[in-house]
Amino acid sequence: MADAAPSAPVIILNAPQLAENIGAVARVMANFGLADLRLVNPRDGWPQERAWALASGAEWPLNAARVFDTVAEAIADLQLVFATTARPRELTLPVLTPRAAASELLQAAQRGERIGLLFGGERAGLETSDIALCQGIVTIPIDPRFRSLNLGQAVAINAYEWRATLLDAAPPNFRPGPGPATGEALLGLYEHLERELETAGFFHPPEKTPNMIQNLRSALGKARFTDQEVRTLRGVITALSRGRGKVLEKIARKKGEAGG
Amino acid sequence: MADAAPSAPVIILNAPQLAENIGAVARVMANFGLADLRLVNPRDGWPQERAWALASGAEWPLNAARVFDTVAEAIADLQLVFATTARPRELTLPVLTPRAAASELLQAAQRGERIGLLFGGERAGLETSDIALCQGIVTIPIDPRFRSLNLGQAVAINAYEWRATLLDAAPPNFRPGPGPATGEALLGLYEHLERELETAGFFHPPEKTPNMIQNLRSALGKARFTDQEVRTLRGVITALSRGRGKVLEKIARKKGEAGG
């Protein structure tokens, strides 16, 4: 099916210990559009209620999860699998960042291949013999001073990279916002402001006026105001300078009352 | 200090509910080389033992965590802050992927700026008024069919992108010139403007005031004003609203002469 979306990677957890982590993995899979979860020898058996409790409603990866005895069986139908591990191995497999891995996985999926990501359990990680069944190693760029990455987080980062790559790293498709105002609209704003500042006696000494104007314009220009923002700011200038009228009247009245 | 490594982003959690999530955030911060954690109104107070229990030994971000009453206070010393939120807002702030955000944050840090990432609490997320204090929005490319992303995962993905970007980064490219003003200086500017606008009767109808304020703040915030520009703009506000003494006196005198 040439037009179908490429199939997302299968997530394989080898010897996961905590049902809570399996639930967290299901949740993050749902966050990033993944659905196929496979468990190799979960320590406490399967199913486990606490996984559902921790999935925050992302039940479908759990409901459909399949259990296997070995990694080999769990990946038997897959054509490209990367093993996620923090440690470099003696194997000659390529070592990829999550980003590069997502890119290779996507290319494979676009060719119609079935793809997967293999994760080790909380304590033991992955055996070299299991890694050797994979086509590459994904290493998350952890700070070597604190390597203890939670299983759910490791899946999250790879699932995120999958989806970010799938979306072609473009920002999420929001309705396009209003573009910046034209130079003409900006100049109207600047000149309005400068007229009012001139009236208010802001520009002095006079020989510095051109510089002051340039600095104001370039400061405001950095904001790349929209047309609506330009209108709002012109309202602000009008309000402030009319407000001055009110203040002035009050002052004048007071001075008048004081017999000035 | 030209040779120092760029400072990692501060992580600000607004109204976090579960101590477990705060612990998970600390752990993932340690995984990716972040250390400065700030809490705005943690629901159950602070410190909480369960945060330490869930941090798997990543205690230093928790030990050094600081608590604030408002987002404004928590970001007062920062110069570039992105708010992480899944929903597009009415604000005109730029919307960035985590990758693009990490790149902008790194460039700012390489210029010596203090940077941060703001996250909302588990239930409520972020108020628009808090987002309006930031310079951009980071949106994780979540599957719209399952948007419920765990707080720890949201921090993990952004922290991972920070470190991946840092490790990929070319040597810092120092740009001369003053950096942007702090959140505190910006807030001072905003509040000065809003006081004068209030006096001038700009905000009406009253129920729209919060929205008008948010829109003004986010419009101006895009400019990333320097300290000097903030001072200039405060002079502009003062001039527009009060005029300079001489002008006032002149006008007052005229009004007096006119029999006002």
TrEMBL record, chains A, B:
Claim: Methyltransferase is one of the keywords in the record: yes
UniProt keyword annotations, A-Z: Methyltransferase, S-adenosyl-L-methionine, Transferase
InterPro entries, alphabetized: Alpha/beta_knot_MTases, RNA_MeTrfase_TrmJ/LasT, SpoU_MeTrfase, tRNA_m1G_MTases_N
Record-annotated tRNA/rRNA methyltransferase SpoU type domain positions: 10-160
A GO CC term attached to the entry: cytosol
One Pfam entry name: SpoU_methylase
GO molecular function ontology, one term from the record: RNA methyltransferase activity
Gene Ontology BP term (one): tRNA nucleoside ribose methylation
Record bears the keyword S-adenosyl-L-methionine: yes
Entry-linked SUPFAM superfamilies: alpha/beta knot (SSF75217)
Family per record: Belongs to the class IV-like SAM-binding methyltransferase superfamily. RNA methyltransferase TrmH family.
Protein name in UniProt: RNA methyltransferase
